[in-house]
Structure formats: C-alpha cells, structure tokens
Amino acid sequence: MQKRALIVGASGIVGSNLANQLLSTGWAVSGLSRGRTALSPAIEPIAADLTSATSVSEALAGKSFTHVFFTAWSRQDTEKENIRVNGGMVSHVLDAVGTTDTVSHAALVTGLKHYLGPFEAYATGAIPLTPFREEQGRQPVDNFYYEQEDRLFDAAQRYGFSWSVHRPHTIIGYALGNAMNMGVTLAVYASLCKQTGELFVFPGSATQWNSLTDMTDARLLARHIEWASTSVNARNEDFNVVNGDVFRWKWMWSQIAGYFGIEAAPFEGEARPLETRMENAAKAWSEIAPRCNLRESNIGALASWWHTDADLGRPMEVVTDMTKSRKMGFLDYQSTPESFFTLFERLKAERVIP
C-alpha cells in the first residue's frame, strides 16, 4: 500500500525538503498550512488555520494518511504563548487524523533548544555537557518543544501509532521567507558585502568563533525523518540529527568569504549582531536587486538577521552526538561546507542572489 504523508508546514525549510525526499521514493504527499505559499504541483495543498481545532478538523475531514510529519511552528511574544499555541497546533492535527485509524507514525521536528532552553531563557540554566546526547533529557524551564512532545506522546498512546522526535542543529537548506534560515541569510549578507565593498564581519560571540560546532543539512534531515518513520528500530525514540562533521567558525567564515570572493574581517573578540548593523540593508538590496536582475527586492523576505544572531551569538559550545542514530542504522553523512556551497549555487541559479 502506498504511504500517504501529511506534512504540516510543507513550504518551510524542513517541510519542503521532506516533501521532495518522500516524493522521490514514491510517497503520496499532502501539505497542510495556512495556504499563503504555493506548493509543488506534486503536493496536495490543504489550507487551514492551525491554531483552530475546527479549521483543522474541517480541512482534514474525509482524508486519511499513514504518516504525519510536524515541521511547523508559530513564533509568539512569550514562551507561555509559544507553549499554548504550538502545543495546540500539534493536538489539533493529531486529533483530526488520529480517529481515522490509518496513521501508523507521527514525527515531530524540534531542535537543540531542547537542551539550550527557549529564546526567553537562552542558556540561563545549567546547560548539559557537550556533545548533547538524547539521554540528557529536559531543562527545568518552560519550553514549547516539551509541550509539543507531550501532545505527541499523548496522541500516540490514544490513537495507537508510533512516534519519533528529531532535533536538528541549525539547518542549511533552500527555502525563502523562512525565519530559521542561516544559509540564505549569510548568502544575502555576503552578497551585500561584495556589492558594497564592506568587510564580511562575523556577527557572533567569541565562544562560537573558537568552539567546535556542527550543522544540519535539510536534505539529510529529510532522509533521517523518512528513515525513522519506516524503521522498526526507530519507533518511539528521540534523535539528534546533524551532518556528521564538526568545524570552527573561525575556519568556516573564511571558507564562505572565499566562495563569494570577498574579504573576511579579522574577528575583534566581541559580537557585532547583524540586526543592529543591517539598518540600511533594505535600501541597498532594493537597489542591487533590479541591477542584478534578482527575483526578490525585499530583503526581509530573504534574511532573518535576528535568528542568525541568536545562533552565532551563543555563549556556550554547541555540538551534537549522533551515536543513537548510528547504532540504530542511520549512517548518512553530509559535508557542511558542501551544504553551504550547494545552497549558494542554487540561490544564484534561481536569481535570489547575484
């Protein structure tokens, strides 16, 4: 029987790459979202307000799926609101499809803030020793990831399907208008530097500059999610998921600069956040875009300065252990520099950057 996937957030950086992966291996794919972004013609679009149980239930009435993949979240002003809204979204979807008795597995994508804490309480508690391991468990702070997990566990028990939780580090992949997209943000920043002659300044902390770290390619994450959803060994398990290599930003920054043919500024020891330095970026990009025949002149639709600042400004080392997945059979590996360069090539080919 053909596997039928419902991807919540199919237009995002995780959801779109997951859809491509599943379609390539013969799945039927439907995408549930607010309907603001067009999906591939191969994906059945389903529009609903994910924050409304009624809207979700009505949109999914009469439909059945074998697998549900939750790759969306809605950023709120406080973590308590994040908990209420994002936890509710998980329940609304799983309650709507759970009663069909066709769902065999549901997967939830969260991230390393499981160990670091949410933005509100970032690194304020006792951070586990690196590399982060799944058995280190939860931090004693409010975190909407924990609420999403609990809603998933409860629905799985009530409706009789298996589950998996996936915790990527910062994701590299193609998606536009996505808040959690360092790769596109750095590509836009480097392109601005090349066009204006400005130095390519690392915006983050000394700790991030000097420490080991890792990242997650969206394509590898998609393969990991598919593997866990179809592997008996991976049922009812939580997983870290990263590329498999490690690096230091003091090396990677010069690699990215070299790709764009620009000069990387020497690191001066203090963070210089992009959000405060990019005040004139919108105007500059609006002039660069027509001159270079780019598809998007609104830099706000491409770059998320705040999120890249948050990732690169961390005051602690962030590196991840993949032993659990390896022992259970997931052996994929991805070079992180190649992840960046492949993304940059696609952004050029699609006229997103010069």
Q: How are the SSEs placed, and which strands pair?
A:
Elements: E1 4-8, H1 13-24, E2 28-33, E3 44-47, H2 53-60, E4 67-70, H3 79-98, E5 105-109, H4 113-116, H5 144-159, E6 162-168, E7 171-172, H6 182-196, H7 206-210, E8 212-213, E9 216-217, H8 218-230, E10 237-241, E11 247-248, H9 249-260, H10 274-277, H11 281-291, H12 305-312, H13 323-328, H14 336-349
Parallel strand pairs: 1-2, 1-4, 2-3, 4-5, 5-6, 6-10, 7-9
Antiparallel strand pairs: 8-11
Helix pairs in contact: 1-8, 2-3, 3-5
Kindly list the characteristics that best describe this protein:
354 residues, alpha/beta, Rossmann fold, seven-stranded parallel sheet, two-stranded parallel ribbon, globular, PRISE-like_Rossmann-fold, NAD-dependent epimerase/dehydratase, NAD(P)-bd_dom_sf
Describe the structure.
The structure is a single chain. With 354 residues, the chain is α/β, with parallel strands linked by helices. It has 2 domains: 4-168, 3-Layer(aba) Sandwich (Rossmann fold), CATH 3.40.50.720; 177-214 and 246-318 and 334-350, no CATH class. The chain has 14 helices and 11 strands. It has helices at 13-24, 53-60, 79-98, 113-116, 144-159, 182-196, 206-210, 218-230, 249-260, 274-277, 281-291, 305-312, 323-328, 336-349; strands at 4-8, 28-33, 44-47, 67-70, 105-109, 162-168, 171-172, 212-213, 216-217, 237-241, 247-248. A 7-stranded parallel sheet has the order 3-2-1-4-5-6-10, with helices on both faces. α3 (79-98) links the parallel β4 and β5. The termini are far apart. Residues 65-354 form the PRISE-like Rossmann-fold domain. It comes from Caballeronia humi. InterPro entries: NAD(P)-bd_dom_sf (IPR036291), PRISE-like_Rossmann-fold (IPR055222).
